[in-house]
TrEMBL record:
Pfam families: FCD, GntR. This is GntR family transcriptional regulator. Residues 1-66 form the HTH gntR-type domain. It comes from the Bacteria. Keywords: DNA-binding, Transcription, Transcription regulation. It comes from Phytohabitans aurantiacus.
Length: 207
């Protein structure tokens, strides 16, 4: 078991499985490692407990931190009060938006446009879980466009708390009065306007 855990951890630490990315499925891991399904399941569970991986219902298992230290941060943030989590999100996302407006590339904008379209489609679907995931993916794409590896890693470790605050914001059903337009935020990043991007990012994260 320890050997399998170490093998999985190595995939994370070497960047083969990057922070924010989804790891191979359980059957794929069984085939690649040559061990039983239960062994793989227990090894993944151990790294989830350590805060390195995160299981997302209906989506898969994702890398949320490159090591157990970041994992400890993730666990602490995940248990925080919603108001505290929103304040931390604001600290991350406002600066990320500012940096993204200064550093975004053509590829970043393509990713942002795609994530924004997916978010809009998820809202129209009326499915809360789909919208929460799509919204979180858009914000992660903005952080990625900031091109600060440390910020991206810390933000990824905050993933569960981010999704909790999004879910809290939209409630049990998607009502129009809770809809928050993110098109202006993406537009400010595209325009290379760091102050407007920061203002847009902070506007919907008031506590």
């Amino acid at each position: 078991m320890r050997q399998v855990i170490d093998q999985l951890r190595e995939q994370v630490s070497t960047g083969a499985w990057p922070v924010g990315g989804r790891i191979p499925t359980e059957p794929q891991l069984v085939e690649a490692l040559g061990v039983g399904r239960n062994t793989v399941r227990e090894a993944v569970r151990a790294l989830v407990h350590a805060g390195v991986l995160e299981c997302r219902q209906g989506s898969g298992t994702y890398v949320v931190s490159a090591d157990e230290l970041s994992g400890a941060v993730s666990r602490r943030l995940a248990s925080a009060q919603v108001a505290e989590a929103v304040e931390v999100r604001r600290a991350f996302e406002v600066e990320a938006a500012r940096l993204a407006a200064q550093r975004r590339t053509r590829e970043d904008m393509a990713a942002l446009d795609g994530a924004l379209a997916d978010r809009e489609a998820a809202w129209r679907s009326g499915r809360v879980a789909d919208f929460v995931e799509a919204d979180a993916v858009l914000h992660a794409a903005i952080v990625a466009a900031a091109h600060n590896a440390m910020l991206a890693e810390l933000y990824a470790s905050f993933g569960a708390a981010t999704r909790a605050t999004i879910a809290e914001g939209v409630g049990a059903t998607l009502h129009q009065d809770r809809y928050v337009d993110h098109g202006r935020l993406v537009a400010a990043i595209r325009a290379g306007d760091p102050e407007r991007a920061a203002a847009e990012a902070g506007a919907f994260l008031e506590v």
